Amino acid sequence: MPELPEVETIARGLAKRVSGEIVESVWLGQKPEPLKSPAREIAATLESSRILTVRRMGKHIVFDLDRNGVARTFPSEGSGQALSAKGRKSDAVRAGTTVRPRQSSSTAHAEADRSVRPTQTSPAQTRAQWIVHLGMTGRLQVCEPHAEVLSHTHAILKLASGRELRFVDPRRFGRLSVAPAGDFDAGGIEPLEAGLDRFVALFHGRKTPIKSALLNQKLLRGVGNIYADESLFRAGIRPRRRASTIPREKLAKLLAAVKEVLQEAIALGGSSISDYVDADGEEGLFQSQHRVYGRAGEPCLVCKTPIKRVVIAGRSSHYCPKCQK
């Protein structure tokens, strides 16, 4: 699952490519799992909205939308729409329609035969957010309209520039939702902005292993398995150590390590371990900098002791038994 550096990298890339774009129309597939908000609500929020910017909140990608002053015209149910110069039917908001693999975008859109029309929105409700969680295999792609529609495409946003923003997710653990501006809360505190007092307070009295506490998104948002392991190594703390037993000075070192690891990973575009690529389809490079994650049995880069792998709350954890106490 993409963690904070990967999501930050994708959000930054998308912000450069689609900020200022107007969403002309939306296509939604028939699979219900990716839709955390109702299809009609997603359609009403997105269509004819301007994308102000794209940013990260925890492990979520948030599109800030402005619907003020953007014309909104909705055809009546079942009415035909004019063909473009290329003979392509303009993209109505669809629900209950499968995007078939290995079809061109024009074919997929033309074959959509059941529609959900967005309801009109109050003029006062001009700001909103589209929230995307990538899950394990989700991807957001900015494509030309003639590009092949990949299998497991669940949403296609047609942009005023002629390009399309597509959400593809083979395992369907990703989620799409909308909310009024300011209503979405990713939970936890932002690790890159956390102060020491607040960070220390997160672990006070907690008897869970420090690794589990770092992964708890209600405490600290965005940190996942890879960066928890790497941060604990740099701070010299074993992942099984009970959070409440770690003194303040050691937690200060851990906070510094968390920020350092995350910032280095962002600079290198994240870690490409499985399916992750950025908004341009490029892999990250931070996996070459991993000191413990995925290196079970290999010598520690500091003391040459073999790296150990243990399972904590169902998650693999990697550490050096000599460097980490």
How does this model look, in words?
With 325 residues, this protein is an alpha+beta fold. Strands 1-8-9-6 form a 4-stranded antiparallel sheet, with helices on one face. Helix 1 packs across helix 7 and helix 6 crosses helix 7. The longest helix is centred in the last third of the chain and has 20 residues. The radius of gyration is 22 Å and the shape is elongated.
Quickly list its features.
single chain, 7 helices, alpha+beta, 23% helix, 325 residues, 4-stranded antiparallel sheet
The helix/strand order is: HEHEEEHEEEEEEHHHHEE
**Mean pLDDT rating:** 83
User: Got a strand count?
Assistant: 12
Taking the sheet with the most strands, its summary is: 4 strands, antiparallel
Tell me the number of helical segments per DSSP (H or I, 4 or more residues long): 7
Percent in strands:
15-25%
Report, as a whole number of angstroms, the end-to-end distance.
Answer: 28 Å
**Oligomeric nature of the chains:** single chain
Point out poorly predicted stretches: 71-124
Lateral strand order in the biggest sheet? 1-8-9-6
The share of residues in helices is 10-25%
Shape: elongated
- Using only C-alpha atoms, the radius of gyration works out to 22 Å
The structural class is alpha+beta
